[in-house]
Amino acid sequence: MVSALLRIQTRIYRDGLIGALAGTGEFGEVCACSGLGEVRGLLDRTRIDVILIDIQFERGVPTPVARNAYRIAAGRPIVVLGGGLSDEFVADLFEAGVDGYVTTSDTIDDLVRVLGAAARGELCCPPQVARTLRERLTKLSVGAPRESRVGKLSRRELQVLTMLNHGHSNKEIARELRLETSTVKNHVHNIISKLGVRSRYDAVAALAVQRDG
Q1: What is the DSSP secondary structure assignment for residue 197, as one 8-state letter?
Q2: How far apart are CA 79 and CA 98, in angstroms?
Q3: pLDDT of residue 131
Q4: How far apart are CA 211 and CA 5, in angstroms?
Q5: Burial 13-38 (b: 16+ CB within 10 A, else e)
Q6: In 3-state terms, what secondary structure has residue 25?
Q7: Cα-to-chain-centroid distance, residue 59
Q8: What is the dihedral of CA 109, 6, 28, 104, to 10 degrees?
Q9: All domains in the chain, ordered by first residue
Q10: Of 140, 155, 161, 179, which one has the fewest beta carbons inside 10 Å?
Q11: For residue 209, what pLDDT is reported?
Q12: What is the Cα–Cα distance from 161 to 56, expressed in whole angstroms?
């Protein structure tokens, strides 16, 4: 059974989602809050498998919200609920560390499916957004300088990056290397930082550039 934490600003909407998800029988626990500041406290007190962040009413560009949520989540997968965003904006969210995306047009069944997949370590990316990310990676790979920072990675980080390159999820990497999933997420964060890139996808592209060079 999946344990979920919902960060939903509107109470009436928040209460409705709690009841809807609890009624599916797929969730062992569903807790909720209205602000990101409350998320950290709930994570300290409760076992959470996946976090849902509602960005519908965020002012300005929602990407900083996703980045902040990624830092607070400390390795837990994040699913974003939004509406009316372009493919480019959604791609930005995935580059910021999001694991799944659902829209206000999706059903409760869609939400349950994406939350469950994210909790299992799977990436739930809409096909059109995947194409946008691929185009970004192609441009990065073609235009990237030959010099690479891959050599700065530790042996374990290089192992993780190689497995990312082979398409493995965080959970699959954790199982193969006998690590906690949260530890793998920390390794991925360190890899992104050391390579000076924006996302795991860019890190994989940097590895490809290094090998081609």
Answers
A1: -
A2: 6
A3: 81
A4: 41
A5: ebeebbeebeeeebbeebebbeeeee
A6: coil
A7: 21
A8: 0
A9: 2-125 (3.40.50.2300), 144-212 (1.10.10.10)
A10: 155
A11: 59
A12: 33
- Give 141-190 pLDDT, tens digit per residue: 555 443 456 777 888 988 898 888 888 888 989 998 989 999 999 999 88
The CA-CA-CA angle for residues 15, 20, 24, to 5°, reads 145
60-64, 79-83, 179-183, 196-200: the lowest-pLDDT one: 60-64
d(CA 91, CA 117): 18
**Stretch 118-125: mean pLDDT:** 88
Q: How far is CA 210 from the centre of its chain?
A: 25
Interhelix angle 170-177/155-165, rounded to 10 degrees, is: 130
Q: What are the distances in angstroms from CA 53 to CA 59, 62, 96, 136, 138?
A: 14, 11, 13, 25, 29
Name the nearest CA neighbour of 58 among 81, 32, 88: 81
> What percentage of the chain exceeds 70 in pLDDT?
90
Cβ burial 124-136 (10 Å sphere, 16+ → b, else e): bbbeebeebbeeb
pLDDT of residue 80: 93
Contact 86, 93 (CB under 8 A): no
Residues ≥6 apart with Cβ < 8 Å to 138? none
